[in-house]
Amino acid sequence: MSTTKKFAGAALAAALGVATLSACGGGDAKDKSAGGASEAPKSKTVTLVSHDSFNVTDTVLKEFEQQSGYTVKVLKSGDAGAALNQEILTKGSPRGDVFFGVDNTLLSRALDNGIFTPYEAKGLADVKPEYVLDKEHRVTPIDSGDICVNYDKAYFADKKIAPPQTLDDLVKPEYKNLLVTENAATSSPGLGFLLASVGKYGEEGWKDYWSKLKANGVEVVDGWEQAYNERFSGSAGGKKAKGDRPLVVSYASSPPVEVLYGEPQPAEAPTGVATGTCFRQVEFAGLLKGAKNEEGGKALLDFLVSKKFQEDMPLQMFVNPVVKDAKLPELFTKHGVVIEKPENVAPETIAKNREQWVKTWSSLVVK
């Protein structure tokens, strides 16, 4: 999910030099000076490979490191799809010990390629059962979030038009030329919005829906950054860029973030969420097959589903915890919304049809 850290307006570029991936010289070799009989000491560094949006409070991470004895190295590798592709290409000789960031839109692809070693994390029993999608425990649920249409409150108040609330609303004449979405072939939220329509209207109905949406003037851009921070009139970035689209595909967590980073901080979120337009994303982490530090990887997975990390996560990555008793921060409870009935599509159905759906969508909407 994982454009959410961009709300902060900070660049998240990471230097991924090849040298940082190399093992220390001779670490796995026998000690020849001792007659070749001694074994190399176990590594105390555990490497987490992730998309660019992984984040954790320093004090929370240091507490884990002190308690476990492991030092965590985070290797950020672009967006979720690109990061997963790299792990598939290095299957069996992974760049790290744990991979974080595969979501339910790409889950079957990861599992079918066999890049994970099964491990049932300590604390998994506290995870809400609807998020445990792999009964073999090759992956562990870490967070959830909802891709939803956001709206500019001021625009609709000025025009005296009720903002849309459902997918059906978006094809009505009063919302003509108001929506901007991301390309489903190049963007995670764009793909999620396509899947929302598949979940709502079924295999045949979603095509007709997108034909209507195109006729109603939907604008398609390459990615979330352009849609939200340039074309959307309700975001801080969109206001500066003079965006003229008061509807955008983003996240249910977008309004709290607009409050958090507002200058000055507003008493109320300037944007709202159309709660009947959402698709539920779930992100997972897994122990990489061939991990050099398997025990450290297991400890890290235990940490990711701990209450300490789960309660730190919302304001670091702007996603929701999956552990039953983890509390949301006041910013989320005051300015956010709970999506009671998001659209869902089974991971195996997505895996079977994703490429054809995207190809068909492109021919309907982009060409």
Question: How would you describe what is shown here?
Answer:
By secondary structure, the chain is α/β, with parallel strands linked by helices. The protein is built from 13 helices and ten strands. Strands 1, 2, 3, 4, 5, 6, 7, 8, 9 and 10 form a ten-stranded mixed beta sheet that branches. Helix 5 links the parallel strand 6 (179-182) and strand 7 (219-221). The longest helix is centred in the middle third of the chain and has 28 residues, at 188-215. The protein is globular, with a radius of gyration of 22 Å. It starts with 44 loop residues before the first strand and ends with a helix.
Topology of this structure?
Elements: E1 45-50, H1 58-68, E2 71-76, H2 80-89, E3 98-103, H3 107-112, E4 116-117, E5 140-152, H4 153-159, E6 179-182, H5 188-215, E7 219-221, H6 224-231, H7 236-240, E8 247-251, H8 254-260, E9 271-288, H9 294-304, H10 307-312, H11 314-317, E10 320-321, H12 330-335, H13 347-366
Parallel strand pairs: 1-2, 1-3, 6-7, 6-8
Antiparallel strand pairs: 3-9, 4-9, 5-8, 5-9, 5-10
